[in-house]
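[[Encoded backbone]]
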Amino acid sequence: MLASLDAQLRGYGLDVQLDSAIGAVDAMYRAGEQWPGPTVRRVILRPHRGQLWWWLRWPSEHACPLEHPGQSTLVPLAPASHTSEAVRRIVATLRPFRGGQANHATVPTAG
């Protein structure tokens, strides 16, 4: 499953680092590319509703950056068997600009 996510993210031109020990994948822009906004997203495999799901580490909008720097939350992206859907959502969160405006993509919580 990690290898499939790795291959699909690389297909979008991203660099990927796998951590099979904890079931995590870090997706990022290639070294040397300059992008405003987020440049790395961590995705992990964890159970959700009795199935294995892809989860995205997402910055917590409720955390005070001065009191809790770097605090994040995990958001379920898609079942592990729907890797293409997870990749589409990951890539959407990394898009830098659209029409001169920053893309503050919101990741929909899985129902």
